Amino acid sequence: MKGEGLNLMLVSLVVALGLSFYVGRMHAAVTLPPDAKPLKRQFYKKLNTCDNVEAYVTYQVKLWWEKDKSITAKLVKLLYADCMVNGCDGSILLDGPHTEKAAPQNSGLDGFILIDKIKTVLEERCPRTVSCADILNLAVRDAVHLAGAPSYPVLLGRRDGLESKAAWVDLPSPSISLEEGLAFFKSKGLDAQDYATLLGAHTLGKTHCAAIHDRLYNFEKTGKPDPSMSKSSLDKLRQQCPKSLKKGQKDPTVFLTDKKGDGYRFTNNYYSNVLSYDSVLKVDQDLLFNYNTTQLVLEYAGKFEQFRREFALSMSRMGSLKVLTGKQGEIRHNCRVTNKNNPKLK
Fold first, then answer.
1. Does 85 count as an annotated binding residue?
2. Which reaction does this enzyme catalyse, per its entry (predicted)?
3. Which CATH architecture group holds 40-170+321-341?
4. pLDDT higher than threshold 80 for residue 155
5. Where in the chain are all domains bearing CATH 1.10.420.10?
6. Percentage of the chain surpassing pLDDT 90?
7. Is the pLDDT of residue 6 over 60?
8. In the 3-class helix/strand/coil scheme, how is 243-302 assigned residue by residue?
9. Would the annotation count 151 as a binding residue?
10. Strand pairing of 253-255 and 20-23?
11. pTM to 2 decimals?
12. 23 annotated among ligand-binding-site residues
């Protein structure tokens, strides 16, 4: 895409120089978290352990994306569920009745099979070398790029966590207040700009009607809809999400941003929806009720390239939270099980 090279150069420049800047009255960091310091560009190539790892991952993601474009949103959600709980250590990928994957907040997570496929390919070419945590970060980068985001550089060298507990999962619901959302991000090492920027990923996906039922029919137990939702959106969503389901009827899903046909393209329409009070989720609409986040909504709605650039940076920041490196953790042979519990390694 025209201008993409310059945008990536700018992202790399601000990261390298450790700059920071103001958006409106908000001071926003544009450096990666301190945990990211051990991570490196082309980590496996420099060690001569898996020179073509990125090409292998890109190829597999593209094959999948060409058949199922919803994979982008699924992978982004998977990375969020991993990094925003106990850091980017691939612990969300571990199977088990009491793992993070089994937590109620992670019900409906998808994309695991593609990660398994990529891991199988890499184990054939570079055995016990590339971590599942790195695979997930690379796969997300490639998937969002195919959808229209920039192909930002991913620093590598993460290692995989040795445990995963459902009790760790503290991911908030989509009905949280703006203040609670900002506080949650701050507790993880991210800021208000990351919050407003990463919510823009909602331009890619869907949600179940159950997540917005209160906004449509009983907002804050008033028996009325959320007054911050436009009438046109309310009428449309009520048609898609009935007040009550028939016996045996599955909970329907709706696109979070539907102005681009199939709803799986990376655009800035999400921010236009916020401005016109057409957001599906309350957490998205609430961006308009804070000075700093409103300024970002206005900027991103009017400047798509700026949104693309800042999205790349915020994804890099999230993907660097509490990473394991060096001799910490392990390189899993199978992303779904630790090496200690892998019967094939005994």
1. yes
2. 2 a phenolic donor + H2O2 = 2 a phenolic radical donor + 2 H2O
3. Orthogonal Bundle (1.10)
4. yes
5. 178-317
6. 80
7. no
8. CCCCCCCCCCEEECCCCCCCCCCCCCHHHHHHHCCCCCCHHHHHHHHCHHHHHHHHHHHH
9. no
10. unpaired
11. 0.89
12. no
